[in-house]
Amino acid sequence: MVILDGGLATHLEALGADLRDELWSAKVLLENPAVIRQAHLDYFAAGAEVATTASYQASIPAFVRRGLSPAEAEDLILLSVHLAVEARDAHGSGTVAASVGPYGAYLANGAEYTGDYDLDEDGLTDWHRERWHILAGSEADLLACETIPSYTEARALKRLLAETPEMRAWVSFSCRDGERINDGTPLKEAAALFAGDPQVIAVGVNCTAPRHILSLIGQIKGKPAMVYPNSGELWDAASHSWLGLADPMEFGQAAAEWNAAGSAFVGGCCRTTPEHIRQIRAHLTGEPTG
């Protein structure tokens, strides 16, 4: 069993970062990288064994669109990994997973929640390739392909895995219900893409409502299952607020159920905090955290 971290952007906001930008958490790489290191440290202190880097929305095209040169963009992507490595080393243990966010995150138009893309498999492979090789050649221990909403995008990432045979990865899909990823493909079919791939350490689900997780675990065969759902809250456009806050203790209790159902990796995604991770560790191991 491995305990993952929680929502990096959520904790960055709690530490004072303003993420109202299409770069989202990658914006902080430009403005205040030290706070990213602190966020990783806080998750390690809460009991996480993995630091997932701030590269989810950090891509060469996104930074170039902001006015940086390709070389400056590459430096920022590598910085996201270095900050996590520094936090890991200061903590004394842990794994650094370099986040590979979906093409939809770059589009910043909601496509990461639908998989409705304007690129085919070849186009997606080409779009991901430069960042993929930067991260695969970094200090990261593995690549975290996460919030993948599209079967076609998953096929593109599988092609890139073959280009970096020395690099391990996990692949985690975002799902619309208890059976299908966001583009409508059955998770069972999407997960089967990676069942025989020796580079893939786990296949899972993230940025998905907790109520779907138990059902989705049952769809993953051939690889250890991984789950790190969001808090289950819903955005209320009328009040401009989140409704239905998931209590960290309840989240920890649910995590114990997910682990018992077969998930070997458990953590949190959007709107989860170090306290959620602290509760996961308490419910899964009974160990106190510092």
From TrEMBL:
It holds the Pfam family S-methyl_trans. Zn(2+) binds at residues 207, 269-270. Its cofactor is Zn(2+). Residues 1-284 form the Hcy-binding domain. It comes from the Bacteria. GO terms for molecular function: S-adenosylmethionine-homocysteine S-methyltransferase activity; zinc ion binding. The keyword Transmembrane helix does not apply. One of its GO terms (biological process) is S-methylmethionine cycle. Keywords: Metal-binding, Methyltransferase, Transferase, Zinc. NCBIfam families: PRK09485.1. This is S-methylmethionine:homocysteine methyltransferase. It comes from Streptosporangium subroseum.
